[in-house]
Design brief:
This is Pyridinium-3,5-biscarboxylic acid mononucleotide sulfurtransferase. The protein has 108 residues and is α+β, with helices and mostly antiparallel strands. 32% of the residues lie in helices and 15% in strands.
Length: 108
């Protein structure tokens, strides 16, 4: 047994993977994504992604965490925080967290 302290840590891919194909990757977008994800982690969400569609943030959390995100207090705090970060719109993906969700666009 290796006794690794991070054995159950969720995986996190490069922040650029949160931006759709063909959309420019900028320092501003990467900073917005990072701040938004850090905010959600501070609220207790562990496995998540904030997908950046220009000024729209699409939040993916585990399916079982969606009701928590819809809680009025957390929802309002999230909307306020994301607006301060620079997102005009904030949406919750009702399919929940899934790796490679931006690849779904390629299948069309």
């Amino acid at each position: 047994m290796l006794n690794l302290a991070t054995w159950d840590k969720p995986s996190f891919a490069c922040l650029a993977s949160r931006i759709p194909y063909g959309e420019p990757i900028t320092k501003e977008k990467l900073a917005m994504i990072e701040k938004a994800e850090l905010f959600l982690m501070a609220q207790g969400f562990k496995q998540l992604r904030v997908r950046c569609h220009d000024k729209l943030a699409r939040i993916e959390v585990l399916e079982e965490d969606i009701p928590l995100l819809l809680n009025s207090e957390i929802r309002e705090k999230t909307a306020e925080a994301f607006a301060k970060i620079g997102f005009i719109y904030t949406a919750i993906d009702i399919k929940g967290y899934r790796t490679g969700s931006l690849n779904e666009l390629l299948k069309q």
